[in-house]
Amino acid sequence: MDFPENSRTPSAEDDAAIRNVIGLAALLGDEGDPEEYRRVYAPDATWHLGQTTQSGADEIVAAAAARRAEGISGPGTGTRHLVVTLQVDVAGDSARAVSYYVFLTGTAITTVGTYRDDLTRTGQSWQIHRREIVAG
């Protein structure tokens, strides 16, 4: 992942806020209401996994609700997202983060991969503007 030349190590406050929003995305995937994703994803966010792209918070929320309805993730499914954010860089009101994830079903590892997130500062908080998920 290429980081802009003007990127810098974030302040402790920005680093914590960015790591928290990435963690919140995982927590909401496991326990929250899909509508709460609007706290995590910018209104014009994109979410990419393989050939699947969701554009805008409305599509991202609808897809999360569909996964719940299908029993793929969420309360009662016995699934968990474990996320370790490895790198955060900030350039003004934009940031990039790389995280590894493990998706568990019960005690079995279902998939592992990498989140590559572009984030934007919205007021006093950060939101994911673009998430690319690379499985494997």
Folded structure, characterized:
- This protein has 136 residues and is of the alpha+beta class.
- The chain has a single domain (12-135), classed as Nuclear Transport Factor 2, Chain: A.
- Helix content is 24%, strand content 47%.
- It has helices spanning 12-30, 57-69; strands at residues 41-49, 52-55, 79-91, 94-105, 108-122, 125-135.
- It has a six-stranded mixed beta sheet with strand order 2-1-6-5-4-3, covered by helices on one side.
- It is globular, with a radius of gyration of 14 Å.
- The model has no long low-confidence stretch (mean pLDDT 93).
SSE topology sketch:
Blueprint: H1 12-30, E1 41-49, E2 52-55, H2 57-69, E3 79-91, E4 94-105, E5 108-122, E6 125-135
Parallel strand pairs: 1-6
Antiparallel strand pairs: 1-2, 3-4, 4-5, 5-6
Short overview:
This protein is of the alpha+beta class and 136 residues long. It has helices spanning 12-30, 57-69; strands at 41-49, 52-55, 79-91, 94-105, 108-122, 125-135. It has one domain (12-135): Nuclear Transport Factor 2, Chain: A, CATH 3.10.450.
Uncertain regions spanning at least 5 consecutive residues: none
Q: In total, how many beta strands?
A: 6
Radius of gyration, in Å, reads 14 Å
Order of helices and strands: HEEHEEEE
| Biggest sheet record | 6 strands, mixed
Could you give the distance between the termini?
16 Å
Q: What count of domains describes the coordinates? A: 1
Helical stretch tally: 2
What is the molecular shape? globular
How do the strands of the widest beta sheet line up side by side?
2-1-6-5-4-3
Structural class: alpha+beta
